[in-house]
Automatic annotation (TrEMBL), chains A, B:
Top-level division of the source organism's lineage: Eukaryota
Entry cofactors: FMN
UniProt organism field: Brassica carinata (Ethiopian mustard)
InterPro entries attached to this UniProt entry: Pyridox_Oxase, Pyridox_Oxase_Alr4036_FMN-bd, Split_barrel_FMN-bd
Regions annotated as coiled coil: none
PANTHER family with a match to the protein in the record: PYRIDOXINE-5-PHOSPHATE OXIDASE, PYRIDOXINE_PYRIDOXAMINE 5'-PHOSPHATE OXIDASE 2
SUPFAM superfamilies noted in UniProt: FMN-binding split barrel
Pathway, per record: Cofactor metabolism; pyridoxal 5'-phosphate salvage; pyridoxal 5'-phosphate from pyridoxine 5'-phosphate: step 1/1; Cofactor metabolism; pyridoxal 5'-phosphate salvage; pyridoxal 5'-phosphate from pyridoxamine 5'-phosphate: step 1/1
Enzyme Commission no: 1.4.3.5
Keyword annotations from UniProtKB, A to Z: Flavoprotein, FMN, Oxidoreductase
This protein's name: pyridoxal 5'-phosphate synthase
Alphabetical GO biological process terms: pyridoxine biosynthetic process
One GO MF term attached to the UniProt entry: pyridoxamine phosphate oxidase activity
């Protein structure tokens, strides 16, 4: 077992992202949460980038249907990220913070919004996801001012890892990383090699 | 909305499996459950096959570390299966039955065990997954009699779908399938087109 102030699993994850970057689907992972009915919920999310020292930025895959309500009730989640070329699996467990129009810090939201293409931004002004389809085609002609800020439905998910379970099926190795927060609020990581 | 006795999402899933079969990772999906600590848990599983009229056969990916205990406490799960070539996502929600040495029906377990290669069967006689690694290399020389039945740690997961959320990102379509059980115990499916 070892301890480190810098998250030691990040190097492994950076390596996996780099080594699998030729595969478009390598930026997709699955995020499990607990639904408002108390049952597990699981959907594909797209990795955007790391917020330095904070966590992992995600947006929901293809739609804005993630039930934000469920994350506000129960912020715990586990993201399972499998890299198919290098046979590596990361199970990243932690809290998800929802950053939306009601959040105090609007800078992150603004930055994420403008990092989207205009086409992607249009997705957030489509009819509410999961509501019955009434035959209307989404209006492709909607004019969206490129300089307009985030629409009301737009939100960003920020996963703050607390535990990471790393499995490498090529080398048949498994490492468990756990974080602890010191009295001064600093996060410290321990790692342990376990049987795969 | 329509109703049907035969699970209508199965045709879509068969189609996706077929169309993505050239990609090895297309048989991998992520299974979310609720851990013994009440938090979400998520891991890659391998699709084996359909049990006619019953459900979806799965084995855990690369190891036997799935906390069977957590499934016995809370059998609910959601499997998220993304097909990267056809841009289709299936979120299959239902109960998972664990079939192990203590189950009354040993036929399924025996059949699944013998369908594994000898090399795969050896994985189940490695040291307990998740326990500290003591430096010992798994004994590759272990002799396993090819005619021996399942070892005590071997188990099979059977997911019985109750709801399926289908999203097609190429056609931008989303369908929700829900099941109801009739008085005579027969399952009936309804489907609804919703906004993606």
């Amino acid at each position: 077992m070892g301890t480190a102030a810098v998250a030691p699993w990040k190097q492994l994850l950076f390596g996996a992202i780099e080594a699998n970057s030729h595969l478009k689907h390598s930026s997709y992972a699955q995020l499990a949460t607990i639904g408002v009915n108390g049952r597990p919920s699981n959907r594909t999310v797209v990795f955007r980038h790391f917020q330095i020292c904070v966590g992992i930025d995600l947006v929901e895959f293809g739609s804005v249907s993630l039930q934000i309500q469920e994350l506000k009730l129960c912020p715990f989640s586990e993201m399972c990220w499998y890299f198919s070329d290098t046979w590596e699996q990361f199970r990243i467990n932690g809290r998800v913070e929802v950053i939306d129009a009601s959040s105090s810090d609007q800078t992150k939201l603004q930055r994420a919004w403008f990092a989207n293409s205009l086409k992607s931004r249009l997705m957030y002004i489509c009819p509410a996801p999961g509501t019955p389809y009434n035959g209307e085609q989404p209006n492709q002609e909607v004019n969206l001012d490129p300089s307009s800020g985030p629409v009301a439905d737009y939100c960003l998910l920020l996963l703050e890892p607390e535990k990471v379970d790393y499995l490498n099926l090529k080398s048949n190795q498994r490492l468990l990383f756990s974080s602890m927060t010191s009295g001064t609020g600093e996060k410290c990581w321990t790692s342990e090699k376990v049987n795969p």
